[in-house]
Amino acid sequence: MGSTNSTLSKIPNVEELMQETGFTPAHIVRLYDRFEALDKEKTGHLRPQDFGAINRLAMNPIGDRIIGAFFSPGQETVDFHSFVRILAHFRPADKKRPKDPSMPEPVNSRTSKLKFAFQLYDQDKDGKISRAELLQVLRSMLEMQVTEEQLESIADRTIQEADLDKDDAISFEEFRKSLEKVNIDHKMSIRFLR
Amino acid sequence: MSVRVALHSPTGSRSFLERGLLLLVMLIFLEGTVLTLGAASSPDISAQDNTGGGHDRRDDHRGIAGSHEHTNYTYTKKAFPVLSLDYHHIQVPFEISLWVLLASLMKLGFHLIPRLSSIVPESCLLIVVGLLVGGLIKLAGEEVPPVLDSNLFFLCLLPPIILDAGYFLPIRPFMENIGTILMFAVVGTLWNAFFVGGLLYAVCQIEGTYLSQVELLPCLLFGSIISAVDPVAVLAVFEEIHINELLHILVFGESLLNDAVTVVLYHLFEEYSGAGEVTPTDVILGVICFLIVSLGGIAVGAIYGILAAFTSRFTSHTRVIEPLFVFVYSYMAYLSAEMFHLSGIMALIACGAVMRPYVEANISHKSHTTVKYFLKMWSSVSETLIFIFLGVATVAGPHAWNWTFVSVTVILCLVSRVIGVVGLTFIINKFRIVKLTTKDQFIVAYGGLRGAIAFSLGYLLDKDLFPMRTMFLTAIITEIFFTVFVQGMTIKPLVDLLAVKKKQEAKRSINEEIHTQFLDHLLTGIEDICGHYGHHHWKDKLNRFNKKYIKKCLIAGERYKEPQLIAFYHKMEFKQAIELVESGGGVKLPSAMPSQVSMQNIQPKKLPPAVAERALPQFTKGREEEIRKILRSNLQKTRQRLRSYNRHTLVADPFEDGWNDFLLKKQRMIELEKKMTEMSNYLTVPAAPPDSPTMCRARLASGDDFKAEKAGAKVIPDPNAFYNIKASSDGVPTIQVDLASPQSPDSVNMLNEFSKRGATDQGLGQREGATRDEDQGLMMKLSSAGKEEKEEGGNKNPGLMRCLSDPGPSNEDEEDEPFLP
Fold first, then answer.
1. In whole angstroms, what is the distance from residue B450 CA to residue B234 CA?
2. Local structure of B385: helix, strand or coil
3. Interface predicted TM-score (ipTM) of this complex, two decimals
4. What is the 3-state secondary structure (H, E, C) of chain A?
5. In sequence order, what are the beta bridge partners of A171?
6. From the DSSP assignment, how many helices (H) and strands (E) are in chain B?
7. Cα–Cα distance measured from residue A171 to residue A133, given in angstroms and rounded to the nearest whole number
8. B224 close to B151: Cβ distance less than 8 angstroms
9. Are A137 and A62 in contact (CB under 8 A)?
10. Which residue of B has its CA nearest to A86?
């Protein structure tokens, strides 16, 4: 406990952070340790290269997108607060939360999780997943194993299936609708972040 | 259909009801009489054996040996017996077949009676039938055959059901909930066994029950027999209530995995019942035994599964015996495990689950369908027989009814199950992301049905070691009846009452597939960032290992490189193509369009020459068959088509859903026509009127030459052929109609892609290749094809065969979920 407290004291605005994200002190400490381990040059900020140093992430087909998600547009570094805020999306949802319409949507609710995933698809942030963006994702996921035509026909079919307003792109609502049968809470939660 | 009719007309329903009941009664009588006959004739035979001393019965009938019971022979010694009755010659197989026939006819009968099958689960009805048959036999004064013999049960009746369950086990939900399932299976069963056994012993010790001779160990043994949830009963009941996947897999998984615990406990207590006590060493040995039994069973199953997968890699030339490998290897896995007293059930499950992804990638579509249907058929028959035999055995077996014992058993089982489930869920929920609600717990507890396994285990008990065996059997049967009848019948209304989530129609869309894979990658990445070795990390590692090493060994040809997403996509496309063909009456050609681009790309870009050799032999015979088939079907359908085709069906039919689709279709059709007119300028294919489908396709095939001139070739023989045929609009309108058919977005899709393809030069030749390949390589041969096309066709053959040669029923969608988690 002593080490927890001492670590906690090193972090500015810890209470606010915990309040916002819902993490417990133990979690915050663990994440802080990880943050420091990644931050090899001890600058207190993470840069894309630090993320790139994680080997397994390099093998991940959408690794660079994930890394990109940590950095707000225009920013070169990410500090601990932003780091934690992004990871808070992956906390398991609290079922017992009272639905308070005045409060902002909790960051780990189903909608927020889906929004986060949506943003990973939608790189140009226009609120829609266009065909080109979908193709990009498919290309990176399927790597070298398929031909262009195959990708295109899959992309066509995907959009056709999901696209309800026929604008040849997938909006967030359509995205959400196509995933209504999937248990997002389960799929997009990491156990230890409880 | 009959149900609907029956429900609408009361008189109709009554006649059906009457008919159904009459049928049932007749069948039961028939069965009873034949069996009685059989039973009656056997004493004769035994008598014969005693007196005649001739083992060769044929001698008897030829009247060679002389003095025999059949006095007819002494009279007609000279005359040749033209017609004679020789029942005992064929008795055993005949009776077996009769039982199977009875079982199947019963199943038929139940579904003819409309309301009965919705109120009472099949298992109950079957037990009742068994009771009736047994009663009939007893009435006839004959001894009821010991049908639920443990050997027969464990070696013949149980394996098909378990194999069916294991082969089609939904791996993803199973693995996701494996912790919970194991907790319920191991800890839950142990708890049940000791609770029931212990308390029973305590009750027996009470004065006034006259049960004080029942010792502790037999009680514990009884507890362990009766505490195991039975997979057969669970399957039978849960299948009808269509509960959501999570609960289904929880209860079902538990029923499968508790076999190891039951086996160990059973053997442990049985061994030491003679000795009279169990020492701590024995307990430790028991734990070790448990680990060996379960892990050993899984290992045995996995080994046989890998063997089967490896064998299936080489079966491309002998497709007809492919299903046999699946069955034989699995059965041998079961037998091998049973040989070492390991858990046969776990071996079967492991074998089926391990071999499935590789075998399915290797075998042809027909074999796949065969495997599926045989498994379903055998497991269905087995299940039916088991329940009927339970009924018969109830009537047959010596019973020792003891009110206290039996009632206490039933109550204790229920109580212990509830306590066990609630307690375990409390602990488990601390580790689960998606918690189990009270409703879930109730269903899990209530769904803990006991079945024939408990009975067979009880039957196996040695009469000498366990004098109270008959009492045990009676209690077991009562418990089984209670769970199957009371719980089985009431679970459906309870599920509705409690509004438990039902199974969703598992039509997985490509969106879901893509997005779930995306999320998998995302979560793996996040776990890596957090430095957390979680669920996704290990799953990802396993997948990589699988892809890199295992698939190379076990999957034939180039197909191992096919990513899961593509396989899924192909499956969807094929299914749609089949639907289009079946419903529109159609033309195979356009229905291939949506997938044409993808279809031809089952293999990656670099094609090893080895593939060509393998591909070649598959063409000749198959092609002829296909020509014949196409001729037959198209000539038939031509007539149909001419009747139903109507250009105006394109335009609004407001009663059809997909109004928008129509407009879209029309729009695209117009675009398409425009494009075709453009392209017709470049035509070099002769514009002779198409006379027969084959010729028409041959013409299309001749466009194959264009493949060689890929560069800059704007010629599109396909649309040309289309255009031609369209213009002539005679004998072969097959191709057009599907464009117009108000079938599904498929046509839109096809047109969509078509128009898009028209715009690109690239992939033109490939597309043609695909269209041809579509007919199982029919057209490949017709042109002076290069090596590439042969390879394409050859490689595609298994996949295409999959699509077009055998349209299986589309209800089975849920089983075709992507098998790689």
1. 8
2. helix
3. 0.91
4. CHHHHHHHHHCCCHHHHHHHHCCCHHHHHHHHHHHHHHCCCCCCEECHHHHHCCHHHHHCCCHHHHHHHHCCCCCCCEEHHHHHHHHHCCCCCCCCCCCCCCCCCCCCCHHHHHHHHHHHHCCCCCCEEEHHHHHHHHHHHHCCCCCHHHHHHHHHHHHHHHCCCCCCEEEHHHHHHHCCCCCHHHHCCCCCCC
5. A128
6. 40, 0
7. 12
8. no
9. yes
10. B526
What mean pLDDT comes out for the span B515-527? 83
**Using CA atoms, how far apart are residues B285 and B267, in angstroms rounded to an integer?**
12
Q: Which amino acid is at B596?
A: Q
Which bin fits A106, alpha (ψ -120 to 50), beta or left (φ > 0)?
Answer: beta
Q: Which residue in B511, B572, B746 has the most chain A C-beta atoms within 10 A of its own C-beta, making it the best mutation to test that interface? A: B511
Nearest-CA distance from A101 to chain B in Å?
Answer: 24
Distance of CA B149 to CAs B266, B453, B579, B795, Å? 18, 11, 46, 49
SS3 content of chain B, % helix, strand, coil (to 5): 75, 0, 25
Query: Of chain A residues 128-157, which have a CB less than 8 A from chain B?
Result: 137-138, 141-150, 152-154, 156-157
Are B365 and B323 a contacting pair, CB within 8 Å? no
Calpha distance B631→B609 (Å, rounded): 33
Q: How many residues does chain B have?
A: 821
pLDDT over 80 at A7, yes or no: no
Q: Taking the CA atoms of B807, B808, B811 and B817 in sequence, report the sign of the dihedral they define.
A: negative
* Inter-chain CB proximity A188 and B514 less than 8 Å: no
B225 vs B241: CA distance, rounded Å: 27
Residue type, B139: L
Any A CB within 8 A of B517 CB: yes
Partner A contacted by B753 (CB < 8 A): yes
| Residues 6 or more apart whose Cβ sits within 8 Å of residue B619 | B777, B780, B781, B790, B793, B794
Nearest to B625 by CA among B766, B797, B783, B786: B797
- Positive or negative, the CA dihedral B161, B331, B94, B397 is negative
Residue B270 has pLDDT above 50, yes or no: yes
Output the pTM of the full model: 0.66
Chain B positions touching A60 (Cβ under 8 A) are: 521, 524-525, 528
The residue assigned the tokens 């892990």 is B295
Contacts of B746 in chain A (CB under 8 A): none
Q: pLDDT tens across B97-137, in order? A: 988 898 888 888 888 887 777 778 888 888 888 888 888 88
Contact A154 B745 (CB under 8 A): no
For residues B592 and B716, what is the distance between their CA atoms, to the nearest angstrom?
A: 16
Q: Is A35 on the interface with B (CB under 8 A)?
A: no
Distance, first Cα to last Cα, chain B: 38
Q: Is residue B333 within 8 Å of residue B301, measured between CB atoms?
A: yes
At residue B54, the pLDDT reads: 37
Supply B9's token pair: 């007309």
Tokens describing residue B31: 């069965």
